[in-house]
Write a structure and sequence with these properties.
The protein contains 16 helices and no strands. Helix content is 67%, strand content 0%. It is an all-alpha fold. α4 packs across α10, α10 runs antiparallel to α11 and α10 runs antiparallel to α12. The two termini are 54 Å apart. The longest helix is centred in the N-terminal third of the chain and has 33 residues.
């Protein structure tokens, strides 16, 4: 940057700007991208449900982060990466192995900023806080309705997984890439980050977030393949690094690792995913049974109920509106009537 040339190189300001300006700008750009992806998915592509929009945004956000890691490691632009390695794709491995150790301090600073800036901002809920401050500055509290007073910092906060999960995946990818090459530099920072993140997000889930919908864990099918992609990326970077150090035998010994990860993914996809996408009969029976009335035993000496009697009772107590939209079956809603205090003072 041109303005850095005017700052003395031996000053503390120059050192801080040189070391942390690039990661901060990257995190700001990464923070704005989900908003752009959400607008494109909602208004241009026409996705209708929140869950689908969030899953689409998370997938694209992760691909951007993966490409960003590749560009940072190669220390060049994305266009130069494409033009330079289209003719000789195998040279990508050599360039990755050569530039990988030099990029370790950059990712270490990125994890530090995520730990000591991103997580505290998550706790502060900076967006609702700024909204509350603006409302308190420009509007009199006596003129606010109860509904307006509940907005801002006291408003219901919904989880935004399309913003949260890619940040966690970025740190996980950095740790997976340097767990062998620079374990002392990156791995302790990753342990600290995930330890604090578990505390922060557990608190948010228990006391702050109110889910907007319930998808039955569909987001796991988005996260699980990308976690394995991060692991495979770490394997490929390690193999590239060993090739540049002429450790051919160790590189060949590590080649089965990406293949084993792929077969593990296929095993989980075929064995567990079909079962996870469908509800079990026991769960369905327990949900339907919760709506039924208590059924007496067939005889005073019997402590169990026959399947025929239970089925008849469940059919008798089953509601025709059980799977209908609640807003269409709740009846007429009463408006919330609020009175402003000192309304004549503002006239």
């Amino acid at each position: 940057l041109s303005f850095l040339k005017k700052i003395p190189k031996d000053s503390l300001v120059y050192t801080l700007l040189e070391g942390y300006l690039s990661p901060v700008l990257l995190l700001i750009a990464l923070g704005l991208l989900p908003l752009v992806f959400t607008l494109v998915a909602q208004h241009y592509e026409g996705y209708k449900t929140y869950s689908k929009i969030q899953r689409v945004v998370c997938k694209r956000y992760f691909l951007y982060q993966l490409a960003n890691v590749l560009v940072v490691v190669l220390s060049t632009s994305a266009w130069e990466v494409l033009t330079r390695h289209l003719k000789t794709p195998l040279d990508v491995l050599l360039d990755l192995g050569t530039n990988l150790p030099a990029a370790a301090p950059y990712f270490a600073r990125l994890v530090i900023i995520q730990t000591f800036s991103g997580l505290p901002l998550e706790l502060l809920r900076i967006g609702p806080l700024l909204l509350t401050l603006l409302v308190s500055l420009f509007k009199k509290q006596s003129l606010l309705t109860p509904r307006e007073k509940r907005r801002g910092i006291c408003d219901v906060s919904v989880p935004e997984p399309e913003w949260t999960y890619p940040s966690l995946l970025l740190v996980f990818m950095a740790c997976a890439s340097y767990e062998v090459i620079a374990p002392i530099l990156v791995m302790p920072l990753g342990v600290i980050y995930f330890g604090l993140a578990s505390i922060v997000y557990k608190y948010q889930v228990l006391y702050v977030f109110v889910p907007r919908y319930e998808s039955g864990g569909r987001f796991w099918f988005v996260l699980f393949p990308r976690l394995l992609i991060a692991v495979v990326s770490g394997h490929i970077l390690l193999i590239s690094y060993l090739l540049t150090r002429n450790n051919f035998s160790q590189s060949i010994a590590l080649l089965p690792l990406p293949v084993l990860v792929y077969f593990f993914f296929r095993y989980c996809e075929t064995r567990y995913k079909p079962r996870a996408l469908q509800l079990t009969l026991d769960y369905i029976r327990s949900v339907d049974g919760a709506m039924q009335q208590p059924v007496p035993s067939e005889s005073p000496s019997s402590s169990t109920t026959s399947p025929q009697t239970m089925q008849q009772a469940m059919l008798a107590s089953f509601s025709a509106d059980a799977y209908a939209q609640p807003n269409l079956t709740c009846g007429a809603a009463e408006p919330e009537v609020t009175l402003r205090e000192n309304v004549w003072e503002s006239v």
